[in-house]
Design brief:
heterodimer; A: about 475 residues; alpha/beta; Rossmann fold; B: about 220 residues; four-stranded parallel beta sheet; 12 helices; 8 strands; globular
């Protein structure tokens, strides 16, 4: 089980480097995103279209996946079905083994992080080399992601320079960003040209045409999807889009929401294999990994519409202070708080649905209008309903307070007790409050007392 | 017009002066205020904390208590909860600034408040009820007021109901930034359309002996020379 959001957040909140980097980065991207979406007069219509396409894809998921399989196969690809991470990992490993690959290069992919692919390959003597700069930094330093889009946002330049000097270069690097990234480039280029197999995730898989899409900024993903002879894509089944024309909507929504760009630098689209051009063997691994179970929850299923843009992270006042690691999942932030408990189990992440003040900023920013605040409340309800003990102090207090509110006379008696600092209204979890904040001065009389006295003395007149 | 006051349990018990201000204000504008005394709590705390059934049963109770045609409340978050959970409330339940600006069509309510004030617009006012700049428009007409803009005003103060207790550390980290911005405005008074946020902000201002008061918007709009 996870350690729990309040415990980890307490630690990450004390990390001054993280607070500064994250505060600065999220504030910058927030402002840029508003400018980027402000340019489009039909932004709200695009959001509606995105939500509608996703809803349709989920409602017809079995049909769409079979269409996808048929089109990919027709274009010379091989489709595999994986019920869970272990099956998906075994498929990727067996493809690698069949080509005698001891190394594979990887495009940034959260789905493969989700299933622990790198560790599974390592157990079979195959090293997976992350080629996204931030993912490479995390891999070399055995660190965990703190942002969907900028995973190493919590690290600074000096740390990265020292890390690269220790691991991938013999040169002494300057503090110049170009020099530091050049070290990564030299290291990665050698790998792109020699490693026989690449592994990618997928932003979209188009059922109609069998086309897979990866959207990125660095071009390292493009290297992976074009240079090696074998390409294996691990795609969560919720990434399927019914039609080719649906891409028109998402290729507008995604870059503006995620990097606040009109268009991202590299959009790679490939359909099966093409003789003499690019990888000559293509495998598509369709990963369930709990997704069909999420689909069974009529409210919670909306979380599957997520296109991993990270706009909800950047606008979230909780995320932008605690950072991604506090969510103890490859999916951080508001979307992680609704996705992780559903994908990996409410038992595994019982505190995440409460990791939000329900301020609503995430919903306003979501390009496919996932009602994250409503989902959080829904999942809170599920955690409480599925709790083994109905006798937790909180549940008992909540029941008692509801009983008080259920009748006027009990409520008025409780108000009198509360003024004396006693009873169910006064005792509800005050220590957490008063550790850092004063309580309001108890008023001399309640509003209803005042109203009654006022009526008795001079009807219609104020006091 | 006959207006039923939905005071909310929170204001009734802890912030009676806000209810008094709403009564003063609406009567000054020539309306009759009634107070259905059976009212207790709308269920928001239970519902939003995850006790969905308890929350809904209190929302159902709210519906039985309030049969009135026009209901006004000085709490954006309770209004948002009731609208979602009591469909019959829609169209007859108004948050105070909505009621004044949209329903009565007034922005100048005849108030006078010669102090430096900053407004925390509150998440549920902005993103649940979409009240927009109605609070600002009402405050702008108050005589003598020195209304200063709060930087990054639309960011949450970190209250979030039981969030403030369950995730007290994160809540305080959010509040810390809100306080810094409030203090930077050099305002004497921080106001909002919800006392729950103000209890949180004001509780920390008092703990810090910051010398800044928190006051519900209704109390400023009720104030006269």
């Amino acid at each position: 089980m996870s350690r729990g959001f309040p415990v980890v957040a307490r630690e990450t909140l004390a990390n001054a480097q993280l607070r500064r980097n994250l505060g600065k980065a999220t504030a910058t991207i927030r402002a840029k995103r508003l400018r980027a979406i402000g340019e489009l007069p039909d932004w709200e219509a695009l959001r509606d279209a995105g939500a509608a396409i996703k809803a349709r894809a989920m409602a017809t998921l079995p049909e769409q996946l079979e269409r996808l399989e048929t089109s990919v196969t027709a274009h010379g690809g091989v489709v595999h079905w994986a019920r869970d991470g272990a099956e998906a990992n075994a498929i990727v490993a067996s493809v690698a083994r069949s080509h005698g690959a001891s190394e594979v290069v990887k495009v940034k992919s959260i789905a493969t992080d989700e299933i622990g692919l790198n560790d599974a390959l390592a157990a079979q003597g195959i090293s997976a080399i992350e080629t996204d700069l931030a993912e490479l930094i995390l891999q070399l330093s055995h660190d965990k992601t703190s942002h969907i889009l900028v995973p190493a946002i919590h690290r600074n330049r000096l740390e990265i320079k020292a890390l690269f000097e220790r691991t991938i270069t013999d040169r002494e690097l300057s503090m110049d960003a170009a020099d530091i990234t050049e070290a990564a480039r030299e290291h990665l280029r050698a790998k792109f040209l020699s490693v026989p197999m690449a592994v990618s995730g997928a932003n979209f898989g188009v059922a109609e045409t069998g086309t897979v899409a990866v959207v990125e900024s660095e071009g390292n993903g493009r290297m992976c999807t074009t240079l090696p002879q074998v390409l294996v894509t691990v795609m969560g089944i919720e990434k399927v889009l019914p039609e080719w024309r649906d891409l028109e909507v998402f290729l507008q929504l995604l870059p503006r929401s995620s990097t606040a760009e009109r268009m991202n630098p590299y959009t790679s689209l490939w359909t099966g294999v093409r003789p003499g051009d690019g990888p000559q063997e293509f495998h598509l691994v369709l990963l369930d990994g709990g997704r069909t179970q999420v689909l069974a929850d009529e409210v919670g299923r909306q979380a599957l519409h997520c296109i991993r843009c990270s706009a909800c992270l950047n606008v979230c006042p909780v995320y932008s202070r605690v950072g991604g690691q506090a969510y103890e999942s490859v999916y951080p932030g508001p979307i992680g708080a609704v996705l992780s408990p559903q994908l990996f189990g409410l038992d595994e992440h019982p505190t995440l649905p409460w990791a939000s003040s329900l301020c609503g900023a995430c919903y306003d920013a979501c390009p496919v209008k996932i009602e994250i605040p409503s989902l959080l409340v829904h999942l809170r309800g599920r955690v409480i309903r599925e709790e083994k003990s109905k006798l937790s102090p909180e549940a008992l207090a909540m029941k008692a307070v509801a009983g008080v509110f259920g009748s006027r006379s009990r409520y008025e008696r409780a108000q009198k007790l509360a003024r004396l600092g006693r009873g169910p209204l006064a005792k509800a979890a005050l220590p957490g409050w008063t550790a850092m904040r004063e309580l309001p001065q108890p008023p001399r009389e309640t509003f209803r007392d005042w109203w009654r006295h006022r009526g008795a003395s001079a009807p219609g007149a104020g006091e | 017009m006959r207006v039923a006051l939905f005071i909310t349990c929170f204001n009734d018990t802890l912030f009676p002066s806000t209810g008094q201000a709403v009564v003063t204000l609406l009567e000054r504008l020539g309306h009759e205020v009634v107070f259905p005394e059976e009212q207790t709590c709308c269920g928001q705390m239970h519902g939003n904390t995850g006790y969905l059934d308890l929350g809904q049963s209190l929302a159902d109770r709210w519906e039985r208590v309030f049969s009135d045609d026009v209901i006004v409340s000085p709490s954006a978050s309770c209004v948002g909860y009731v609208r979602e959970h009591v469909p019959s409330s829609r169209g007859r339940l108004f948050e105070l600034t909505e009621f004044l600006v949209d329903h009565l069509g007034v922005t100048d309510v005849g108030a006078s408040f010669p102090h430096r004030v900053t407004l925390h617009p509150t998440c549920h006012s902005l993103r649940l009820l979409h009240v927009g700049d109605r609070p600002q428009r009402l405050l702008a007409e108050v005589r003598g007021i020195d209304l200063v803009e709060l930087p990054e005003a639309d960011e949450c103060c970190g209250f979030g109901g039981t969030f403030a207790i369950k995730n007290a550390d994160t809540s305080m980290a959010m509040l810390g930034d809100k306080l810094r911005r409030v203090l930077d405005t050099r305002a004497e008074v921080c106001t909002a359309a919800d006392n729950s946020c103000l209890m949180h902000i004001g509780g920390a201002l008092r703990r810090q002996r910051a010398g800044v008061r928190t006051m519900h918007l209704a109390e400023i709009l009720a104030a006269t020379e």
